[in-house]
Every structure is written in structure tokens, then in C-alpha cells.
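Before the break, one more example. Copy the sequence into your notebook; we will annotate it together after we see the structure.
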Amino acid sequence: MEVRSWGRSKEEINNYDNYLFLLLKTGKKKRKTMNQIIKEHLKPTLTTLLIFIFSSVLVGQNRGNNEIGLKALDNQYGFLNIKLETPFNTFKGLIKQDGDNYYKALQPELRLGKYTFEAVYLTFYKDMVTTIEFETKGWTNTNGVLGILQEAYSEGHKREHFGYKWKGQKVWMNFAINESDGNGVLSLHSVPLMSKEIGENE
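Here is what the structure looks like once it is written out:
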């Protein structure tokens, strides 16, 4: 799957689901942390399987209450060991890609529970990370990652032929899935940095 940086022009940014629609309520209910969810997925027990199935049903019944998951997404402000707004000089051995300020990160194998990411790409704005992209390969990894994301951050909004999206106040996350081979690209975008970029492009 071809990976590219998201939205470098004003037109591309404004076409990403009306970028300025950012008003979301804050949830107060406590959620499990990502580490807790991963540990549950790794326990090969019938009890864990039943808990996971039951939790998935509950998530499906409460799709309208996804502000809790979006709040967790905002608070994390990144994914795995990479945070949005991290300075450019923090990273070593970045490989320049086609596109403005777009690089491949030299990372050791990144795993989410038992699922792996093939590659990581970073886009910078004023020498700070504005977009992080994680590439998955095959249906096993892509569906496994999606399941953990949905348990951690809510069901997300299903986009026809484009996977899923989550809109927080600080972070927008998109998981684009190729329906022909199961490859996917998980991307996280910094709302504050992209708001500044929009302002400069106007």
C-alpha cells in the first residue's frame, strides 16, 4: 500500500471532513489503559475471550458515548512510543520521502500486543511532528490492531471504503484499510498544529 503524508495543501486540509468541526463533550467514566487491554488480549484463556466478546458487545451498544474514548485519545496525544509535537531533532536516522517534510522513521519492530507494524512515517510542521503513520500488513495484523483501537478509543466512525476515523479535540485518528489485501495505514494528526498550518495558508 502506498503511504503518503496527509493534507499538505489548504484544499486537502479543508476537505478532511470539515476540519474545524472539533466540539466534543468530555466523558468522566474511567477507561482501561492501553497496557491493560493489550495484556488481556495476550492471555490465552476462555475467560479472557468471553470478557473480550462481552466488552465488544458493550462497545457496540454505546457507540453514541464515544467521548470517553476520544478523551483518552487526546490525553495520549500520540501512539506507542511516538508523541505528536515531538521536535525533529529528537529522531535519529530519518529517511526523506517524497512530499514536504515527510520521513520514514527507523524504528525497531513495533508491536501492539501480538500484532506488528511494518513501517512508521512522520510528517513535520515547523520541525514538530504533526502526523504519525503506522503501516500494517495483512488482515490478521490489521483486524487485530483495529480491535484494540476500538476497545481503547471507542468504535470509531466507519467510513465506506476508507476504514475508520476518530475525532478528538486534540487528535484526529484515521485507520485506512485496503479491502483487497487487508493492508492498512493508521494515522494520527495533531489538531493544534494543523490549525496553525491552516491559518498560515489562508
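Residues 115 and 140 are 8 Å apart (CA to CA). Confidence is low (pLDDT under 50) at residues 1-31, 44-54. Try to locate both features in your own notes.
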